[in-house]
């Protein structure tokens, strides 16, 4: 088992989305860090799009709709 793979990258992106979007949606003041609410939502959109691109690159476009393989143990 590799320590860092695309699944780990997806999990890191999910955490980043939760931090950025969670703050923007709950009214966290991102302007302290130079990021407006609108910019925070744009960052979240780019992160979500990157997850789709990673999946398409890894599994091919048809892999996005194919049944998920079993989890390796």
Report low-confidence residues grouped into runs of 5 or more.
Answer: none
Write down the Rg.
15 Å
The overall pLDDT, averaged over residues, is 78
Largest sheet: none
Order of helices and strands: HH
Beta strand count: 0
Q: Bin the strand percentage.
A: under 5%
Number of helices: 2
Helix content: 55-70%
The assigned structural class equals: mainly alpha
What count of structural domains? Answer: 1
The backbone outline, from C-alpha atoms, is: elongated
Span of the ends, CA to CA = 9 Å
Please give the structural blueprint.
Layout: H1 6-26, H2 37-59
Helix pairs in contact: 1-2
Structure description:
It is a single chain. With 73 residues, the chain is an all-alpha fold. The protein has one domain (6-59). Helix content is 60%, strand content 0%. It contains 2 helices and no strands. Helix 1 (6-26) packs antiparallel against helix 2 (37-59). The protein is elongated and about 45 Å long. The N and C termini lie close together (9 Å). The model has no long low-confidence stretch (mean pLDDT 78).
Short overview:
The chain has two helices and no strands.
């Amino acid at each position: 088992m590799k320590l860092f793979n695309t699944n780990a990258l997806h999990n890191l992106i999910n955490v980043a989305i939760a931090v950025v979007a969670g703050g923007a949606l709950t009214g966290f003041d991102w302007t302290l860090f130079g990021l407006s609410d609108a910019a925070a939502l744009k960052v979240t959109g780019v992160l979500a799009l990157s997850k789709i691109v990673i999946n398409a690159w890894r599994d091919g476009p048809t892999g996005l709709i194919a049944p998920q393989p079993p989890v390796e143990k």
